[in-house]
Amino acid sequence: MSKSPLPLRIAALVVGLQSLILLGLSFEVFFDVSKENLRASTGVGVMLLVLGVGLGLAALGLLRSRNLARGPVMVAQLISLGLAWNLFRTDEDLPGVELVGALIAAAAVIVLALMLTPSAREALADRPEGLRV
Length: 133
What we know:
Elements: H1 6-31, H2 38-63, H3 70-88, H4 97-115, H5 118-123
Helix pairs in contact: 1-2, 1-4, 2-3, 3-4
């Protein structure tokens, strides 16, 4: 196993943190017994659990410079940017919603920027070793 470049290791750290947050949210949904609609909350909990495990596996893939991790990580970050945009534009008067949106957007931009560096792109290239220029 070759050592992944620094930008990929930093991106993997941020994606790993995103994964842990999703896993924590899933367990919070599962163990919140005051939910009125048990089916909906169970579905949300399962979805968050699957997303958290998937992002965790993608973070490991980034650490190992596996090109299969590139797509899921990029899609997750683009979805995060859309979520952050919606949090900024909400009409709700929820305390801290702008801060949460800013944190989500910052993490997504950082990961996207790190994954677009030349060393990260080279490490995640689809080409076999013998065809690299």
